[in-house]
UniProtKB/TrEMBL annotation:
This is Glycerol-3-phosphate dehydrogenase [NAD(+)]. Keywords: Chloroplast, Lipid biosynthesis, Lipid metabolism, NAD, Oxidoreductase, Phospholipid biosynthesis, Phospholipid metabolism, Plastid, Transit peptide. NCBIfam families: PRK00094.1-2, PRK00094.1-4. It comes from Setaria italica (Foxtail millet). Residues 277-417 form the Glycerol-3-phosphate dehydrogenase NAD-dependent C-terminal domain.
């Protein structure tokens, strides 16, 4: 799909077309056409009103016109959808023989399972560091550590050998936490084909360098031309495993590459839009984790719905201010990788970052929280990097700065709320 569709949200399910529309479907028009282009529909007989003479006639006529307009709009959508499906047919999946997933966490496992289920003879190799997880995937077809309740497709093979995992791969999913990515990639760089496309699933900023994955991957591999795509959007691993409807976005400077990955991943339960705004997608994906911690703190302190709505709205503005200063497109921040991912991460209990905030707001110490988790909450390490970026680009970010100070134990959640509420009353920007 074209880059302009990057912020497309869910389209309604496609109904079975009526037989009388077959001729029109063979000649698909654009989605936005005049009413004269639509297939005429017969008016429904409306029996809901009693025949009370001329007084009811205008109401019945208006209702029929409205229903007819809805039917016409729906049929246009059906024809437009079929037109794009035919136009975007590709043999990307058919020509792909092997995928490699770097990392054995929940989301990397979910993406491996998603693609493996699309093609039975596709080899999906997972590079993991835990021997126990490796044996569990190969012998029981279960990731016993992260997704123990879900059986994986049998064409997924786990290994601890980078050479074996990367040999002959057509695409590579990078699912290693951001803070460990540089050292990990440097250690396997000799096994990486310079033309192997890297699809980044990792969200965050490298703490000391403030780099995103689009900068980390080429630098660590020693190849600034390494093909790169970022995949982001509102998506929990367990819901992908359960094949629940999901929509995400792939972003790359190379539009053909983004289109190829779109076709590789798209399925009846996963919609993939494309974008060329790598900066916007990456920055939104990193900063939403910090905002989710703030949302969890509000929940943990029982500050109410008014406070939650105000905080998330303010946080969205802060993310937009910084991202646009860095070159992101504002439209990206209102799309799947922006507001879509923010809503999911801030409001749903499955979010690791939100749960960190929830426990902080309830009075737990950060060290205790982190030691009890078996997965990484990227927002904790990203918070300090966000503030450094804000200073670099001269952007005021009171909510995200407060989160960083709480994480650094310089401010209690209660004190942070008081300070935020006492900020000057200003014009909304």
């Amino acid at each position: 799909m074209a880059a302009a569709a990057a912020t497309t949200t869910f389209l309604p399910p496609i109904p079975t077309p009526r037989p009388r529309l077959a001729a029109a479907v063979r000649r698909p028009p654009p989605i936005f056409t005049g009413a004269a282009d639509a297939v005429p529909m017969p008016d429904d007989e409306d029996s809901s009103d009693d025949d009370d003479g001329d007084a009811a006639a205008p109401r019945r006529s208006a209702r029929k016109d409205r229903r007819r307009a809805v039917r016409i709009a729906w049929e246009k959508l059906v024809r437009w959808s079929r037109f794009w499906r035919r136009r975007n047919r590709s043999d990307v999946l058919e020509s792909t023989r092997k995928l490699v997933v770097l990392g054995g966490g929940s989301f990397g496992t979910a993406m491996a399972a998603h693609v493996a289920a699309k093609k039975a003879d596709l080899e999906v190799s997972m590079l993991v560091r835990d021997d126990f997880v490796c044996r569990s995937i190969n012998h029981s077809h279960i990731n016993c550590k992260y997704l123990p309740e879900h059986r994986l497709p049998e064409n997924i093979v786990a290994t601890t050998s980078a050479a074996d995992a990367l040999a002959g791969a057509d695409f590579c999913f990078h699912a290693v936490p951001v803070q460990f990515s540089s050292s990990f990639l440097e250690s396997i760089s000799t096994h990486v084909d310079p033309k192997l496309p890297f699809i980044s699933l990792s969200k965050g900023l490298e703490l000391n360098t403030l780099r995103t994955m689009s900068k980390i991957i080429p630098r660590a591999l020693g190849n600034r031309r390494q093909p790169f795509i970022v995949l982001s959007g509102p998506s929990f691993a367990v819901e992908l495993m359960n094949k629940l409807p999901t929509a995400m976005v792939v972003a790359s400077k190379d539009k053909k590459l983004a289109s190829s990955v779109q076709q590789l991943l798209a399925s009846p339960n996963l919609r993939i839009s494309t974008s060329s705004d790598v900066t916007g997608v990456e920055i939104a994906g990193a900063l939403k984790n910090v905002l989710a911690i703030a949302a969890g703190i509000v929940e943990g302190m029982n500050l109410g719905n008014n406070c939650m709505a105000a905080l998330v709205a303010q946080g969205c503005s802060e993310i937009r201010w910084l991202a646009t200063k860095m070159g992101a497109k504002p439209i990206t921040l209102s799309g799947l990788s922006g507001s879509g991912d923010i809503m999911l991460t801030c409001f749903v209990n499955l979010s690791r970052n939100r749960n960190v905030g929830l426990r902080l707001g309830s009075g737990e110490k950060l060290d205790q929280i982190m030691s009890s988790m078996n997965q990484v909450a990227e927002g904790v390490s990203t918070a300090g990097a966000v503030i450094a970026l804000a200073q670099k680009y001269n952007v005021k970010m009171p909510v995200l700065t407060a989160v960083a100070r709480i994480i650094d134990n310089e401010l209690t959640p209660k004190k942070a709320v008081m300070e935020l509420m006492n900020l000057p009353q200003v014009e909304e920007v």
